[in-house]
Amino acid sequence: MKFTAAIGALFFLSLTNMGGAWAHSxxxxxxxxxxxxxxYTAIDLETPGFLLAxxxxxxxxxxxxxxxxxxxxxxxVECVDSSSEQGQLIARLQSMINISAMRDLVQxxxxxxxxxxxxxxxxxxxxxxxxxxxxxxLLFGDEEQLSNTEQLSLxxxxxxxxxxxxxxxxxxxxxxxxxxxxxxxxxxxxxxxVILVNALTNVNxxxxxxxxxxxxxxxxxWSRTLGILGIGS
Length: 233
Fold this sequence. Notes:
By secondary structure, the protein is α/β, with parallel strands linked by helices. It has helices at residues 5-16, 19-24, 26-36, 80-98, 120-129, 149-155, 190-208, 219-229, and strands spanning 40-46, 51-53, 59-61, 69-76, 106-113, 136-139, 169-173, 178-184. Helix 3 runs antiparallel to helix 7 (190-208) and helix 4 (80-98) packs across helix 7.
């Protein structure tokens, strides 16, 4: 499903104000989404821990990202084609999210795998794909004090899942740091990912408002939502 920027903005902004309704059926929504979106795998696991550095040398660990929904992906420096496809995908997702009130609640994290000896790849990456540093950053590791990013990428692969460096995988981490699933490839319905992110941001809003235990407002709301997303009933 494709939205124009204006329609998409209105739709996402309206959902941002429906915190309670999203909170109550998050798990069932994730399961339904996984059934109907071939690219999505729903999980609820502890996020693999990491200690990395950004381009300015600032240290970032997984716990410091709590409080935001994190869209995390690994970048293979040597894999030109897949890195390009992943960069274009992240740029599309960021443009969809950043036109809404979700912008300040979401952080995009690209973790660099492999050595960028010349530094050219990382220097050019942001500008090449038109990414906005307001909620996107690159992180790096090493084999001494920081996390080894090759090993970290394997920790983000479930048992039986491919670990090919060419694979494009976009991970979603919830507000409280729980690994909430991942999307494989770049051909999934990006609107589904954005709506999942919206649901995760609103779970936090509902809990803060003291409404997390309320009964779901109506089955009709979810039916309409799934219909809008093009997900079968």
